[in-house]
Amino acid sequence: MSAVSDEQVEAVRSLVAAIPAGRVRTYGDLADEVGLSNARIVGWIMRTDSSDLPWHRVVPASGRPAPAVRTRQLELLRAEGTPLRDGRILMTRARMRP
Questions:
Q1: Are 30 and 60 a contacting pair, CB within 8 Å?
Q2: How far is residue 53's CA from residue 28's CA, in Å, rounded to a whole number?
Q3: Residue 43: which H helix or E strand, with range?
Q4: How confident is the model at residue 1 (pLDDT cuts 50, 70, 90)?
Q5: Can you say whether the dihedral through the CA atoms of 55, 59, 93, 98 is positive or negative?
Q6: First to last CA, the chain
């Protein structure tokens, strides 16, 4: 993974904190907005520095949560009124664009 600056980490954290309930952003959306070379870097930031953030609002572009967090993430999103169907986020309705 390429080097990530503290400023980039804080920019990602700020963008995640600003996602309103009922909406989602993708790892790629956040990477593009911050100028990161790869969406996986956002995943790394979320894994290592997101316990105080609404982590469940950051999702893959497919709208399908990762198996390891699927149940909890869908539960949290459902509670916020995020549009879901058959265990998948309805990205055309829930995705927040920059």
A1: no
A2: 18
A3: helix 39-48
A4: low
A5: positive
A6: 25
Q: Which two tokens stand for residue 38?
A: 């790869």
**Distance between CA 13 and CA 84 in Å, rounded?**
25
pLDDT in tens, 28-82: 999 999 999 999 999 999 999 888 999 999 999 999 999 999 999 999 999 999 9
Taking a C-beta distance cutoff of 8 angstroms, is the pair 25, 57 a contact?
A: yes
Looking at residue 90, its pLDDT comes to 97
Output the pTM of the full model: 0.93
Q: What is the 8-class DSSP label of residue 15?
A: H
Rounded to whole angstroms, how far apart are CA atoms 75 and 15? 22
Determine the Cα–Cα distance for residues 60 and 3; give it in Å rounded to an integer: 22
Amino acid at 49: D
The Cα–Cα gap between 95 and 1 comes to 27
Per DSSP, the three-state class of 58 is strand
Residue type, 98: P
